[in-house]
Amino acid sequence: MDHFVIVGQNPLVGKVSISGAKNAAVAIIPATLASNGICILENLPVIEDVTNFVQVLRKMGAKCKFLDKSTLQIDTRKISAASISSDLLKDMRASYYILGALLGRMGHVEVPLPGGCNFGLRPIDQHIKGFEALGAKVSIEHGTIKVCAEKLVGANIYLDVASVGATINIMLAAVYAEGVTTIENAAKEPHIVDCANFLNMCGASIKGAGTDIIRITGTNALKGCTYTIIPDQIEAGTYMIASAITGGDVTVCNIIPKHMDSLTAKLAEMGCQIQEGGDWVRVTAAKQLAAANVKTHYYPGFPTDLQPQMTTLLARAEGTSYVTESVFPNRFQYVEQLSRMGVKIKIDGRMAVVEGPVRLTGTEVLATDLRAGASLVIAALAATGITKISNIHYIDRGYENLEQKLAALGANIKRITTEDLPVAVEA
Ligand code: EPZ
């Protein structure tokens, strides 16, 4: 098992290059299954979710070859299995994109019910609503989702929730639906636009991605293409917050500054100095951070995936801050581990009340999901003393070379590996 050991209080200074977006990669890799050709994906992040998906596609008969560490060639002309029971999928929420990507080509697809992070119920009713509107039959048996459709016909679908996953999954299926499909109340995240741009490069006809109405005109075949994945707004935001909490001065490079607007505005409100260029943002920490209120929302609102990291930063701000989590019903579970480091946070349903500034102190803590793990790293960077973070496989799912990138900015961080200690057997 791997752990991070961090000695806190080093200000982070310098430049960090941001990798490709995890949530774009885990949509576009399965999206290649919709194309009957050879795709080359560039700027893929080197993370476990990507390597796991590549193993799954290989099991399905796709020929996958890494041309370099972040460039992948995928040949999906000969897909054998449309039902995948791989254990690799159980941990990955994005496994359900295989349904939308393959439904049009194969007419029948089965995948295990999605896994993913454990912060409250994560239903897929909107995905099912979209597939059924296009003429598919959906059943869930023995923990597997089965979707069949003789023919997909375009439909008007109004999402009850602006779900990122459902927007992408329905877009994937609609590419092969006869006629026009409209998705209303669609999510607008950057990775939705990225996936639509990829599909259009393969010959699809998708208009309006990035707005709340997306129109897809069906086609009967998609070719391969070469496509570069967008940079990861959440990885970038994590380093920007790490700069602010350590009294640092960090420039995040190879990003799309527009994607960071909600965070840069909040950091400026807290007293940080922000400078922006064409593909970089520089965050110079405030001497004393001011309290602020944060409300997560769908893009372009404040991203829920930066909420744990921002709540940690607010613990170091002067005054009382209020954080409202409007996207997920229960995304404050990480606070229990953070409390071991000295934060004073009260949870009331979807709101966290953060008192600050508190002195963070190092101790042993456990990552409970990907962004919860990131919040513990951020707390450890600012804490006095040593922090040992376990279960960092969660963090490895979404951050490429985290310890190397942080160390290059001046952090004192090490990855240690311990054999899984034998579990004591009751005498
Ligand atoms: C995607 O999850 C991301 N995961 C999440 O990132 C991210 O937090 C989330 O979007 C919101 O931005 C990937 O892209 C792989 P949703 P997704 O469907 O698609 C409800 C990370 O750390 N809902 O937009 O599952 C749902 O319960 C991860 O990178 C329904 O009610 O999110 C939630 O309350 C964590 N019915 C809300 O919508 C549905 O059918 C948003 O979920 C689907 C969702």
Can you tell me about this structure?
With 427 residues, the chain is an alpha+beta fold. Helix content is 30%, strand content 25%. The protein is built from 14 helices and 23 strands. The strands form six sheets. It has a four-stranded mixed β-sheet with strand order 21-22-1-23, with helices on one face. Strand 7 (137-141) and strand 8 form a beta hairpin. Helix 1 packs parallel to helix 4, helix 6 (164-174) packs parallel to helix 7 and helix 8 (233-245) packs parallel to helix 12. The longest helix is centred in the middle third of the chain and has 13 residues, at 233-245. It is globular and about 60 Å long. The two termini are 26 Å apart. The mean pLDDT is 94. The structure holds ligand EPZ. Ligand EPZ binds at residues 22-23, 26, 93-94, 117, 121-127, 161, 163-166, 187, 189, 304-305, 327-328, 370-371, 398.
